[in-house]
Design brief:
Bound molecules: S-adenosylmethionine
Structural class: alpha/beta
Strand content: 25-35%
Number of strands: 12
Distance between the termini: 40 Å
């Protein structure tokens, strides 16, 4: 039986977590609900690894940095059903697919841009409740801070997916995580969640803008 999960707009059949929304391609559904796969979505892995809070809610405005060709942003828009999701992607090829999918989702706004240059989409994006970032680059913390600085509400939230191997391939991932956390010291760190067994050497960090 499908029941509401502990966070808004997320459901569970006891085995999977699910959302309600337009189906993309031939993805798996159960009774019309979309099955969310933690091996294809770090946000899903973070939720299944028992994060205590999920700042993305029904009415949230979310800035989603780097959508890639997978579908996490569409699950974010299922959760933020009365809000809006601004989807920033750098690759024109991936952007083309994104535009196509966003056409059937009224409240997703595709933006072809470099998240390193938030000023380039300042005329499109309003202030947001949550900045969600999954960019596997060495300067991922800087990118995150720049975007929260420009678009984050005071007391708003940020979620950053840290891939230790993108920052430093030689150092122990725990050391890399420690440095990332130090780099985020202007925020209140609410949670740090490892993504094993779904993603090796990844950690999700949830912060609050103070
Ligand atoms: C790590 S994946 C993103 C994963 C995805 N968000 C998810 O939920 O699994 C990398 C993506 O980041 C994009 N990207 C890399 N650098 C970027 C930048 N500076 N601005 C925007 N997108 C970027 C790439 O084009 C690629 O699609």
């Amino acid at each position: 039986m499908i029941k509401p999960y502990k966070f808004e707009s997320i459901y569970s059949d006891g085995k999977h977590i699910l959302t309600k929304g337009n189906i993309i391609g031939n993805e798996k559904t159960i009774d019309g609900y979309r099955v969310w796969n933690p091996r294809r979505s770090k946000l899903c892995a973070m939720i299944l690894n028992k994060c205590k809070i999920l700042p993305i809610k029904k009415n949230s405005r979310v800035l989603y940095l780097s959508t890639t060709s997978n579908t996490t942003y569409s699950y974010v828009s299922d959760i933020a059903e009365n809000g809006v999701v601004y989807c920033v992607e750098l690759s024109p090829r991936i952007f083309r697919d994104l535009v196509h999918i966003c056409e059937s989702r009224k409240k997703t706004v595709p933006i072809l841009a470099d998240a390193n240059r938030p000023g380039s989409y300042k005329h499109i994006v309003e202030s947001v409740d949550v900045v969600y970032q999954d960019i596997a680059q060495r300067n991922q913390t800087e990118i995150f801070k720049k975007n929260i600085g420009m678009f984050g509400k005071s007391h708003g939230h940020g979620i950053i997916m840290v891939k230790a191997r993108s920052i430093d391939t030689t150092t122990d991932p725990n050391h890399v995580y420690k440095k990332v956390i130090e780099g985020l010291k202007e925020f209140e760190i609410l949670e740090k969640i490892g993504l094993m067994p779904y993603d090796k050497d990844h950690m999700a960090v949830i912060v609050k803008n103070v």
